[in-house]
Amino acid sequence: MKERLQALKEEAVSKIEEASNVKEIQDIRVAYLGKKGPITEILRGMGKLPAEERPKMGQLGNEIRAIISDKLDEKMEQLEKAAVAEKLKKETIDVTMPGRPVQKGNHHPLTRVVEEIEDLFIGMGFSIAEGPEVETDYYNFEALNLPKNHPARDMQDSFYITEDILLRTHTSPMQARTMEKHEGKGPVKIIVPGRVYRRDTDDATHSHQFTQIEGLMVGENVRMSDLKGVLQTFAKEMFGQEREIRLRPSFFPFTEPSVEMDISCFNCGGEGCSVCKGTGWIEILGGGMVHPHVLEMSGFDSKKYTGFAFGMGPERIAMLKYGIEDIRNFYTNDVRFLKQFNRVNQ
Ligand code: 2U9
């Protein structure tokens, strides 16, 4: 019986050593230590032994059970540890690998130019006023000295919603609204940025929807020289301190006298090139002294108050500044175009 127990121990231990997974260990435990296993069977048969041998044999049987059980526990622990190590090896994260690039957005080039212009005028003491894009005929035309029969009011040129309501064709109605709010008391010093709409066929230089920034200053003793000083400061800050400006006579229904302002060409310095079409000058904006009729319509005494106004197209300014050849680039959301204006690249 002793030899048989020893042999079973040897057999079990060698099987345990050879086992390569948890399942095998579980099977060995059932096979050798289970209720129907050989050791239990042998110990059950101890009754046939002489009485003096029984305790010794019982002790040996229990010792062998304990040895096999310890070996099984030990191997089980080893296998579990190996399984964890294997899993960790497979799931290792290489922290030095480059991450997935995050696509970062940036401000639209038009937004940037508008904000730059706004900042320049805020620096000269102007406030920003914004207003509705759907306007009444009165504020869009009538209050700006564009009476009923004026050619600019042709139904073909504007987006009318009803006979009396339209998409604003310029930001000027907001200047009229602001003056009205001031109830005849100056000073008024605002710039009005915003989207405007005209019925036009889109091409490289025209769009049915575009952006304007207009300015207005009304006060006592506001003169043409004030307009010139403000616009000159703007031109130099925007296009370089070495720029010259020139004012040419022009016509707008809401200003009298009216002017157009050119800057000396930033590409050739005035020599003449393709950017300035050989003239040495580039047209940037229009302006003038607010027409007395326009002041009166919005509640200002034109004998006491005078004012200047001006208007510009940020698309045109951005196109000149960044060499953009087609206005439609601003509206078609091609990321290849938009990405070029990423602040970190400049
Ligand atoms: C009020 C009084 C006067 C606004 C003005 C211009 C001249 C002008 C255009 C330039 C290119 C608009 O973007 S553009 O198409 N504008 O030349 N705008 S004076 O004068 C006003 C406005 C409101 C009450």
Corresponding CATH architecture of the largest domain: 2-Layer Sandwich
Number of helices: 11
- Into how many domains do the coordinates divide? 2
The general outline is rod-shaped
The molecules bound to the chains, other than polymers, are: ligand 2U9
- Which series of helices and strands comes N to C? HHHHHEEHEHEEHEEEHEHH
Q: Provide the CATH superfamily of the largest domain.
A: Bira Bifunctional Protein, Domain 2
Radius of gyration: 45 Å
Classified by CATH, the class of the largest domain is Alpha Beta
Mean pLDDT, all residues: 91
Physical arrangement of strands within the biggest beta sheet:
1-4-5-9-8-7-6
According to CATH, what is the topology of the largest domain?
A: BirA Bifunctional Protein, domain 2
Low-confidence stretches: none
Binding site for Mg(2+): 256
Subunit structure: Tetramer of two alpha and two beta subunits.
GO molecular function: ATP binding; catalytic activity, acting on a protein; magnesium ion binding; phenylalanine-tRNA ligase activity; transferase activity; tRNA binding
Pfam families: Phe_tRNA-synt_N (PF02912), tRNA-synt_2d (PF01409)
